[in-house]
Each structure stands twice: as structure tokens, then as C-alpha cells.
Amino acid sequence: MSYVQTVIENLRAKYPWEKEFLQAATEVLESLEEVVEKNPKYKSAKILERIVEPERVIIFRVPWVDDRGEVQVNVGYRVQFNSAIGPYKGGLRFHPAVTLSMLKFLGFEQTFKNSLTTLPMGGGKGGSDFNPTGKSENEIMKFCQSFMTELYRHIGPHLDVPAGDVGVGGREVGYLFGQYKRIVNQFDAATLTGKGMTFGGSNLRPEATGYGAVYFVVEMLKTKKESIKGKTIGISGFGNVSWGVAKKATELGAKVISLSGPDGCIIDPEGVGTEEKWNYMLEMRAIGRDKVEDYATKFGVKFYKSARPWDIVSMDIAMPCAFQNEVSVENVENLIKNGCKILAEVSNMGCTAEAFKLANEKMIYAPGKAVNAGGVAVSGLEMSQNSERLAWKAEEVDEKLKWIMTNIHEQCLSAAASVNDPGNYAKGANIAGFLKVAEAMLGQGVV
């Protein structure tokens, strides 16, 4: 058994219940086989055994009082996975499905994603099983304040810099930052990113993940001497990420024809391509009903209950933007059958393990850690602006974002070619992200 397979088997024996984390770790480690075999220093220093274990896991209770005066208790987490190249950096996710396994997978992926940006950021992730859907503004504020009352002691601009993620948008980040500032009695703006523009936020941060994903797809198309103009794009979700993809893709001449939610999906033949439709997406998210059927009612398009767009309509490019494992092997089979050529994950680990293997073999596929890195990249740029006490114009942030995404694309192709697997974005992203972190770990000794 190879060194890589030994590490994977030991992980499976140690954490058999952590399905999401094992899926992510297996996919990354298997892609590193050639690199690790050529560099015995990684084995002798036990780099793989160390890189799959978080440096620190913090678990805490979050008590709060709802609008009826009843005490509620949730569980809070922060997984500080790897700080070899910088302070821990990664979002907070508030969702009832949040578990330690989910956050370990996200923190592990974040480590390599942040490495790809070339910015000095380590990997981390956190959140809670709190469900913001249906909660009042006051209840969300109370929960965020209670959550930060414990988390504050574990974060800081040189230690760990959280941001938003699923269920945590600008409103929640604002409440979290307000409570942090209140407790530490300092305005450490670079402690959280995704803040409002009036207190240290960055231009384009809400759009960054979606914009960056489109920029990455543009680079993928260039390798085939094609343009995004005139392409039909299917996306899932209807939050900030989907909103950013729809805006930028439309601006560049593509047509986005789908959105989805927990209740099903909509197909909009005319395209999700007007200010009215984009603004309504934000309104849908702010209302908190979590129903994409509202869009169908508003704009008179067809709603498909409990369905995903991948099975319903033909598209040139599929860009899942919602949740992990949202694309099944059957979905990929239908995409291929309907003529879809590119699958670019915008969600983290958007494909199941089986779907990933099929897509990587039969389509032009790129993983979330590369495609969606624009969000954390602009978070890193927000940290830089906060440190300099400056606010860059949107055009300047956008220019830097384009450069970062183009550079990530180049890193992926270069790393894939180095192991004689040209065009394999998944393998390239993993290798390029790993090498920087591994070399930093070697340089810092056994810590």
C-alpha cells in the first residue's frame, strides 16, 4: 500500500463517521500521489498526516433567548485547520445541517483554496447548527452576539479572520463585528471580513465569489479558443454567489437560465439578466422564506418542485452555487446527455464523489477550491485595506480579482501539466495548493 493510501485508510479508521471530511481528504490526497512519491521529504516529515489534522478545534454552546422569552441552545464551532502560510481564514456557516465533519471538510478545502490565491492566509472554517430561516431580526442579532461572546477569544487580525458563508451575510457579519468590538474595546476591522461599507468593508465583496467564478470560466473557455458570449449557463442557489454569477455572466454576454432553492428550481428562458431580477434575488434571500418558487410567481416562469436544473434543460455550462454534494452522478449523466461541456463548481465540493469522477473524466471540470476562490481573495483584499486604513475603488478591487483568478487558472494548468495530466483542473488545483502549504510546513519544523 502506498504512503498516500495508508494515510487515507488510517483516516477512515480514525473518523469513520465524518463522511464529508473523508470525501474531501480522499479526493485531495489521491491526486497528490505522484508529487508525494517524487518527494520523499513529505513522507519523512509526515506532512500528509499533519495536513489532514486541524491545528485546533473549538466547540462551544451558544445560549440565546428568542422573541417568546424561551431559552434556545445551539452548538458553535471554529476549526482552525492550518496556519502555515498565514492566519486562519474562512467563513462562518449558520445552517441546521452544520456538523464538525462538514466544517473539517470546509476548513481542509479552505487551506488549499487560500494557498491558490497567493495571499498569506491559512485555512479555517466555523459556524453553528443555528437556522436563521424564519428568525426575526432581533433573534438573529441575539444569536450572533452570544456566538461572538465565546468566539472572540479565539480570533483576531493576526490569528483567525472569519467571514460569511451559507446563512451568514452582511447583516450577520455586522452583528458579529459589533459584539467583537464591544468586548475587546478595539476597532480591529481586519478581524472579520464581509463587513458593511461604512465600517471597513470592501467594494465588490458581496459579488466576489460569483464574479471570480465567471472570470475562471472565461479562462477555461479561452483554452478552447471560445468566448463566454452567447453561452447558456445553468446555476443553482439564489443567494449572493448565484447573484454574482448571474450579474457578471450577463455583463459578459452569457445567459443564465436557472436558479434553485430547497423547494425546487426555476427555468427562466429569457435569462436571469435584469436589475429587477437580480434585486429580487437579494430580496428573496433577505425575506428568509428560502423558496425559489417566489421568483416563478413574480416573473411568470416555470417552477419545478424538488428538482434541480441539471436534469431539466440543456446548457453549455453548469455552475452549481448552492451546497456540497448537490450534483449527483445521475445529474452529470443528464448534463452530458444534454450537451453540457463544462462543469465549474462554485459551491464547495458541489459534486458527490461519484459525480466528480465522471465529470472529471467526461467533461471539462473545475473544482470549487479553484473556481470559488474569488470570495476569499477579496476578503484578503479587505484585510489589506483595513490594515492600510484605505478603501479601494470597485474598479481597483475588480482588477485585482481578475488577476488572482487568472493566476489560479494558470497554476492549475501548470501543476496538472507537471504530472503529465494536462487540463486536469482538479489535480492541478490540489497539487498547486498543497505544494505551497507543504513547503511552509517543512520550513517551520515539526509544529
Could you walk me through the main structural features you see in this protein, from its secondary elements to its overall organization?
There is one protein chain. With about 450 residues, the protein is α/β, with parallel strands linked by helices. Among the domains are: about 55-185, Leucine Dehydrogenase, chain A, domain 1 (Rossmann fold); about 210-370, Rossmann fold (3-Layer(aba) Sandwich), CATH 3.40.50.720. About 50% of the residues lie in helices and about 15% in strands. The strands form 3 sheets. Strands 1-2-4-3-5 form a 5-stranded mixed sheet. Helix 7 (about 135-150) crosses helix 8, helix 13 (about 330-335) runs parallel beside helix 14 (about 355-360) and helix 17 (about 395-420) packs across helix 18. The longest helix has 25 residues, at about 395-420.
Averaging pLDDT over every residue, what do you get?
Answer: 96
Query: What would CATH call the homologous superfamily of the domain at 208-371?
Result: NAD(P)-binding Rossmann-like Domain
CATH topology of the domain at 208-371: Rossmann fold
Unreliable sequence segments: none
- Strand content is 5-15%
Give the termini separation: 27 Å
**Total number of strands:** 13
Shape: globular
Radius of gyration: 21 Å
Q: From the coordinates shown, what is the CATH architecture of the domain at 208-371?
A: 3-Layer(aba) Sandwich
Query: How are the strands of the biggest sheet laid out side by side?
Result: 1-2-4-3-5
Main sheet makeup: 5 strands, mixed
Global structural class: alpha/beta
Number of helices: 18
Helix content: 40-55%
